[in-house]
Amino acid sequence: MKEPAKPARPRGEESLVSQLAQALRKELEAGAFRPGEKLPSEHELTRIHSVSRAVVREAVATLRADGLVEARKGAGVFALDPADRPARPFDDLTSSRISSVIELLELRTACEIEAAAAAATRRSPAQLEAILEAHARIGALLRAGEPTRDADFAFHLAIAEATQNRRFPEFLHLIRAGVIPRGELQGAEPGARPKDYNLHLQEEHGRIVDALIEGDADQARERMRAHLRGSLERYQALLRSGRSLAES
Which of 23, 128, 157, 192 could link 188 by a cystine bridge, Cβ 3.0 to 4.6 Å? Predict the structure, then answer.
């Protein structure tokens, strides 16, 4: 007898799984839970993070696949030692070297150009609204002179989620540590953005947003290409000039 199809996951639930998995991963890697220590119960996690049990289960499954936790039948979920986790792709990713940033921008270009094109034709009204909100948030932070690193990531993640292909946001989460360039590479204070990065950021994002609103895949593709190519060219120029984190 044919097994009945599983119901489609509600829109937005997928991003909640990614967000919860990322939050718990940060806690585990920061040592918030010692190896062998029990994590909060499923019920407690649903209460703490205001998500459903289904979201908690999938987030925990992601962490199990990453080798960060183990489930013991009838006992709960326990932290493992992150140092014992098998090596995974991008584990050595660093944004403290210009060469690493360039490598990642080349990879992002191959992925995010097509993500923008897919999002232009597949995005739901709610997902388009999320993209617009992320874009507006960056503008508000720029006007206030506040850091935009997390908001910039949220903008690109919102586009990835609008592709309706969960592998795009999963990829961005995988490389999150190096997605947004660091200002130290241009001699700024730790945690700041590159000095010339914000000069181009909102204008380039705005062009992408216009293409997404219009549902124009070709324009979305070309405008994302121009955005990432501009970042790549700026870092190639830095590399040619011989700048490095050690010199800042």
Answer: 192
DSSP class per residue in the chain:
-PPPPPPPPPTTHHHHHHHHHHHHHHHHHTTSS-TTPBPPPHHHHHHHHT--HHHHHHHHHHHHHTTSEEEETTTEEEE--GGGSPP-TTTT--SSSHHHHHHHHHHHHHHHHHHHHHHHHH--HHHHHHHHHHHHHHHHHHHHT---HHHHHHHHHHHHHTTT-THHHHHHHHTHHHHSPPGGGGT--TTPPPTTHHHHHHHHHHHHHHHHHHT-HHHHHHHHHHHHHHHHHHHHHHHHHT--GGG-
pTM above 0.70, yes or no: no
pLDDT at 2: 32
| Cβ-based burial of 208 (10 A; exposed 0-12, middle 13-18, buried ≥19) | buried
